Amino acid sequence: MDLKDLYRDVIVDHNRNPRNFRPMPDAHRHAEGFNPLCGDRLTLYVKLDGDRIEDVSFQGSGCAISVASASLLTESVKGRTVPEAERLFASMHQLLTRDDAAVDPAALGKLAALSGVREFPARVKCASLCWHTLDAALHRESAPVSTE
Amino acid sequence: MSAAPAPAVQAQGAERSFDVEAVRREFPVLAREVNGKPLCYLDNAASSQRPRSVIDAISRYYETTHANVHRGVHRLSQEATDLFEGARETVRRFVNARSTREIVFVRGTTEAINLVAQSYGRPRLQPGDEIVVSWLEHHANIVPWQMLCEQTGAVLRVIPITPGGEVDFEAFRGLLSDRTRLLALAHVSNALGTVVPVEQFIREARRHGIPVLLDGAQAVPHLAVDVQALDCDFYCFSGHKMCGPTGIGVLYGRESLLAAMPPWQGGGDMILAVSFERTIYSDLPYKFEAGTPHIAGAVGLGAAVDYLQSIGLETIAALEHELLEYATERLTRIPGLAIVGTAPEKAAVVSFTVDGVHPHDLGTILDHEGVAIRTGHHCAMPVMEFYGVPATARASFAFYNTRAEVDRLVGAVQFAREMLG
Fold it and tell me: What is the ipTM of this complex?
């Protein structure tokens, strides 16, 4: 178990310079995510064009894993359809929790950088918070998402 | 306390007579490794470790003596009762209560506070009555009072803290009113380490006839507590923060108050006689100890008290103070590191933040180096809110920690900065 498996360069970079880190006043959907264990909080904004995610952004504060994960999420779902984003969510869930994950890293692109998280069970929720929040935003769930 | 020599002098004296390596060998867990590195355990405010004598006392009890207490006429039951009640007497001496009737065994500080809220508070409080707590409190000294307020219509009043993390005494005086019914105050802050000058608050409360409960969970392992000298009405603490077992703690209560309080749980052992028409409750302290108690826990707690006293609470306080000073000085020199909570009187707790490194990442990186600290809100979310941080990293020291371990903490924090900062 190497720390560099967790804090890969991509993750360190996205934590220092999170992409799409901004409010979105004209968002069609938004949802809040909260991880009570470490105090991570984020708000995810989505703008839809029919079934397509035209724009997505986030705000909030959290650990490097949660910020980088949210930043990577925004880059990877922008331009995709809602069902495509849902399939990505399912793949990410497998990647983060299952050793024998039948996930093609190539299909995940930069998101594969988070595969080291599953070796650090206490941190899996940090990486998955933004995905649960996106899921809530896409399904118009109004209650804040909590990892507990 | 005012007659005690300055801490530095104590520390020098303590160092001469204290062999920390010998003491460390008495704690089996300190010999283990984490990630291939020797464990550096700096999470003592969350829970301390146990010496061999405590582990042995519990094992010996189960291997040679165990039976239910206060029930049988057979030998084992009598011996178990003697051990259990012997532990109560040990605890009584430890906090200098007048009588073992004032020592109630509970699961821990949290249960002790809930017991007082429900048994002392609930029958007495009227809508509009006020309970005073401070901004420093652990959730265990907030939530039971909020629940009580919901049940009775009473109102919670909160004493503000200063930027350094001290409870504001003048603000406290301003909060007192003819509706104040109880002051519930931390003796030592778990999140910041602040030692609250509770004597001053108790004097003021007593002048107004207001009873005082102290949350002593963080105080008891680090400084000598004398409930008579303090003149408090309730004092609550946990075994597991003072080298004793989990699942056992103590409620000290002034006898006149305990005697007037109804039981809060019903069952066996807390009754003299039961019929379907009428039940007569036991005397103190058994009235508050329904069901078979945590006998092994009490035995272990007694052994923990014996252990702490064999080292001496003054020696412990001096050693920990020296570690605190050293850690504060070393950590302060790390660029971007800010210590949260800078009261002049502190227990050996250093809460801090590091620019560019979230506490949660710090916790993971330090763990990788074998250094165990707590990260998060420390069950004191209002304190985090006060300082405008979501979380802090917290290193908390015990007498078995060393300067070399402080150096490892500092090295690991610097490593984390290089990695993420």
Answer: 0.89
